[in-house]
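Handout, section 4.2: multi-component inputs.
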Amino acid sequence: MSKGIVILARNNEHYDYAKIAVLCAKMAKEHLCLYDELCLITDTPTYNASKESIDKTFDKVIEVNDNTRPSYRRYHDTPERDIDAHFMNLDRSEVYDLSPYDETLLIDSDYLIMSNVLDQVWGSVNDFMIHYDYCDLGHTHNTRRAYLDGNTIPMAWATVVYFRKSVYAQSVFTMIKHIRKNYKYYCTLFKAKDHLYRNDYVFAMALHIINGGLTDKVPTLPNKYLVNSFDIDEIYKFKSTEEVIILCAKRRTSERKKRRIKEQPQYDTYMTRLLGADIHIMNKKSLLRHADALLELLENRNV
Amino acid sequence: MNDIETKQETLDSAFDFANAMYSYNLAKENIKLKIDNRLVYSVNGGTFSVTTEFLNFLCFALQHGEDSLIMLDNNRNPILIPDVEESLEKAKTIYDTVMAQAYEELKQLESSRNIKQVFDK
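Output:
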C-alpha cells in the first residue's frame, strides 16, 4: 500500500503559493516519517516559477492546467489590510483521480505540521477522514463546530483530508465533482452563501449526501480538531520548527468600544503560543513574511 | 485628583487586569488544546484518546490476563488491540511525554506576570 502526502498549490497575482507549499512540505518532512512520498499538484506557471525549490522538496510533481474560471475573493492580512485576488481552489475535487497513492493525506499548503500526530492516519480502518470540529487560537468562537448557514448541516474542514482508494472515497469525490458543477443549486438547498466557491462547503454537502444525512458517522482525523489561526491574526515569530507565537486579533466588545476613540482600530491584539501541535494559518501574507525565517530554522535543524 | 478621575483610573486598571487575564487564559487554553490533539494513540487502524480511563482499562485487562482486547475507538469502530502490554506501554509513553511538556509550559506561564516575557524567552 503506497502512502503519500499531497499538497495543492497554484500561484495567483499576489500570493506565492509555491513557496508556502514548499514550507508546508518541509514541515511535514521534519515531523512525519511514515509516509512514502510527498507530491505537489500544481499548474505549469507555478511550477516554472519555483522549479528548483519544488524539485528539491517534492518526490513527485503533477501538473494540471485547469482552465476553469477561478474564484475571486478578499484575503485579509491582519485587520488593517485587505487584498483582492484570484482563488484557484477548484482542483481539490480532482485529487482522488490525480493522487497516485493507495492512501493519501491531502493537506492545504497553509497547514503547518508541528507534531507527529498525522503519522497515525496510515493503515486506518476508515476509508475517509476529515475534521468537523475546529478551534481558533484566539478562542473568539464559542463553538467547536460551524454550520453552513448557522443551522443546516455541519461544516467540514477540507484543510486536511485522509482517504484510501475505495468505493466510499471514490463516491465522495464523485459527489464533490457533481456539487462543484451545480454549486449554486446546492448552496440554495443547504442555505449556504454562494458568492465564493468553498471546498469546505462542498465537502460538507457531499459527505452529508453520501452518508444519508448521518454526518456524525464521518470519521474524524486522529487530532480531534483543526486548530485555526484566522487571517486577521499575525505571526509574531517562529521560535522553533514546532513553536509559533501568534498575535491574535479579537474584536472589541461593545462596552469597551464606547471607551475608545472612534479612529482607533476595532480590534485588540493578544499574544499566544502554540507548541507541538499542527496549525492552519489563514493569513498567508503573514506566513510568507516569516517563510524565510522558518526555512532557515528547518535548514539549521538538518545540518 | 477628584473622585471621578480616581474611579476612572480604578476602572482603567481593572480593564488592564482583564486584558492580562485574557492573555493568560488564552495561553492556558492553547496548552489544553495541544494536550487534546496530541493525546492519541493508534493501533491496528483505530485511534484512541489516551485518557486515564483508557490507560486504566488496558491495565485492568492485563491484570486479568488478557493479552488482546477489542475496544471502541474514537470513531466508534471496534478495534482489536493485539498486544495489550505493548499498547499500554506506548500509550503511557505518549501520556507522560505530553503531560510533562504541558506541565512545564504551565509552570513557565504561572511563574511570570508578563506573557511576552514568557514567549520571548
